[in-house]
Design brief:
Radius of gyration: 20 Å
Strand content: 15-25%
CATH topology of the largest domain: Hypothetical protein yqbg
Number of helices: 4
Shape: elongated
Structural class: alpha+beta
Number of strands: 8
Largest sheet: 5 strands, antiparallel
CATH architecture of the largest domain: Orthogonal Bundle
CATH class of the largest domain: Mainly Alpha
Number of domains: 2
Length: 190
Amino acid sequence: MRLRLIDAPAEKPVSLDEVRSYLRADDGDSDEAIGALLDAAIGRVDGRHGVLGRALCEQTWELLLDTFPAGDVTVPLPPLKEVVSITYLDAAGSTQTVPSASYVIDAASEPGVISLKPGQKWPATLAQRSAVAVRFKAGYGDAAAVPANLKAAIKLIAGDLYANREAQGGVLHENEGVSALLVPYRIFAP
């Protein structure tokens, strides 16, 4: 399974103003540094490389598979908002689209699942890497829809990075408060 980001979120789950206020750094002189720390904190939590295994603000991804699975397609990075398309390379190497009428989407499951309707089967694909592409939108929506616990965790991470920005040689341990805020939202691999 490989993932490719198609459209990054239009906004951040926590704004620079929110983090600046949280840090009590109202002078504006540190905006560039605080912005970089905010990006690092969001990266620690959000998307393919984040510890949660989920998307926060809405973003579009492509799941690349070498072939269709024998059963359901599991769509990573919940919450799943929409399956945009499922395309594949047929035996001749031409791109085809799986009709949406042949499958159902379970967006309530985390991670989301795409199942074939009764009597349907996945088409044969060209024997090639990334012959199947599942394009999907994931995330809670805009920043206002992101759960407050996740926003608080991002602020705590940014705060720890800000407070320890000049530490050298030491290990920055994760704040236990951050762990407590994130655990209920973490997706664990089966």
